[in-house]
Amino acid sequence: MDEIRSGSAELRGDEARHLTRVLRVEPGQRFEVSDNERAFLAEIAEARGEHVRFRILEPLASPPLPARVTLCAALIKFDRFEWIVEKATELGVERILPVEATRTERGLFEASRKRSERWQRIARESSQQSRRVRVPEILPAARFTEALGMEAPHRFFLEEAEAPALLHEIPEERQDTVALLLGPEGGWTDAERAAAHAAGWRAVSLGPLVLRAETAACAALAVVMAAWSA
Fold it and tell me: Taking Cα atoms as reference points, which of 177, 204, 200, 171 lies closest to residue 188?
């Protein structure tokens, strides 16, 4: 929902059509709805075609996520990048920044502009599935040097080469904002490693094995969320 007001909310377009034509919802059925800020229990007051109207019944508790994480993920083939968007959303990421690294496949950076709407839709659908109140933001793709300027009290550079384990680099005193920088297929170049170090990013690893980018994204987010919940 874009807006909830006067005890009512409306849904139009494809999502409404899915409810009316696929799920065949009827007045009186109850759902959890969100305006991207708060969650509510609501019941359907009207459902026809591409228009569904909800009657708000009561607010629902929506505990905050333990950490506000920005995942700076190097662009990879789009079917696998979509998988990152979906699973990172389920794991609680706040923002996703697609990044062009030296070894990013040619053409992906320019093509990413046409994919942002699809990625945002995937994030929205994944948020609904995982009962998230707020949909993560998909930022416009950035060059590697621009991504290094991402501000956060805790910034981790995921490294496939030798580096301390991420779990051992979690600080005892933690602020709630974290940035994770995830490399492309083929890994980082030595120049990128040097630039990240010079910019103050802390190199960390996820163990001795070489992981696919989408696997590393999930593993790193799971470690951060678990550590910040402790």
Answer: 204
Alpha helices in the chain (DSSP H): 14-17, 78-90, 108-111, 116-129, 144-147, 190-198, 213-229
- The DSSP code sequence of 164-188 is -BGGGG--SS--SEEEEEE--TT--
> Amino acid identity, residue 185?
E
3-state secondary structure of 38: coil
pTM reported for the whole predicted model: 0.85
Superfamily of domain 68-229: SPOUT methyltransferase, trefoil knot domain (3.40.1280.10)
Determine the residue type at 160: E
Q: What is the pLDDT of residues 70-121, one digit of tens each?
A: 999 999 999 999 999 999 999 999 999 999 999 999 999 999 999 999 999 9
Measure the CA angle with vertex 200, ends 113 and 83; round to 5°. 35
For the CA atoms of the chain, what is the radius of gyration? 20
